[in-house]
Write a structure and sequence with these properties.
This protein has 291 residues and is an all-alpha fold. The protein has 11 helices and 2 strands. It is globular and about 60 Å long.
Length: 291
């Protein structure tokens, strides 16, 4: 029963890592850039939904607060792309990576100024609600995380496989020049990708706030999500989710069975092992470009 408890806890954490990792992969596939601020965007989403629903702040219902938070996160993604990324298009990936790291620092600073550095918690009936099935204790917030991630995964699959805009985004991710010659507005598709990445960060932020306290340092979870994206295969959307689940499942078992401190190292140990034995990740997607 203890094993089931650890698995359930790991799945909920892994779903959040996977959603953040999806943002990494989407942006990389569309622009060949790595957005190291994705975790910090998730943190902004978490703190925003807490403020919007807090009885000491705006006190809005979740029906109103969640759409407002998602609009904010979509706007943040759009503005990052328009204000910063567009102006260094064509520069090296290292330059873009450094820029997004700096943006992440900026978002953490802004969050500290607005919300302070004390942990914030979401006011919800979900927090602290548990059901016992024998020795197995299930948190409603963790169930919400898993169910929402499954539903969002199915929605993303339908969007990219069945809609014209989704298919166009996939085409841009595979070959920007060919997509441009086929009449696809590449720049608009790239902007839309950043908007979707912002929405994913918002969803991940809401789910994280439903199960854990949040402060500006929470944005550093993006590092684990980046490791998850690499483990799953940096060009693969299913790989991002699988990589997130791998990292999420490893952590509680490491906490339970390994000496103190090793749980934080395990995701990166797995990352190193994957890079050694399967450099392109679990769901490797490699493409050769003709020049």
């Amino acid at each position: 029963m203890e094993i089931l408890q650890l698995i359930f806890s790991g799945l909920s954490s892994g779903c959040i890592y996977g959603l953040i990792a999806l943002g990494f992969v989407l942006i990389y596939k569309a622009t060949e850039a790595v957005n190291f601020a994705q975790g910090d965007m998730m943190m902004i989403g978490s703190l925003s939904i807490i403020s919007l629903t807090s009885s000491t702040a705006l006190g809005l219902s979740f029906i109103v607060a969640i759409p407002l938070m998602l609009i904010l996160m979509a706007l943040i993604g759009f503005l990052i792309e328009k204000i910063f990324i567009t102006h260094i298009t064509g520069e090296s990936q290292i330059a873009i990576a450094i820029l997004t790291i700096a943006i992440g620092f900026g978002l953490r600073f802004i969050a500290g100024v607005i919300w302070g550095y004390d942990p914030q918690t979401l006011e919800s009936a979900l927090i602290g609600t548990y059901y016992n099935f024998g020795e197995l204790v299930i948190s409603i917030s963790e169930v919400l995380v898993i169910v929402t991630t499954i539903a969002l995964t199915l929605l993303l699959y339908y969007f990219f496989a069945k809609t014209k805009i989704g298919v166009a985004m996939v085409a841009v991710s595979q070959n920007q020049l060919a997509a441009y010659y086929m009449g696809i507005p590449v720049k608009k598709m790239q902007s839309l990708t950043w908007i979707i990445a912002g929405l994913l960060a918002g969803v991940a932020g809401f789910l994280y706030s439903a199960k854990s306290s949040v402060d500006p340092i929470t944005g550093l979870l993006g590092i684990k999500a980046f490791a998850a994206a690499v483990i799953g295969g940096f060009g693969s959307l299913p790989g991002a989710l699988v990589g997130g689940l791998v990292v999420g499942l490893v952590e509680p078992f490491a906490v339970r069975f390994l000496p103190v401190g090793y749980s934080h190292l395990m995701p990166y140990i797995i990352l190193v092992m994957v890079l050694i034995f399967r450099p392109h990740g679990i769901f490797s997607q490699t493409y050769s470009k003709k020049v």
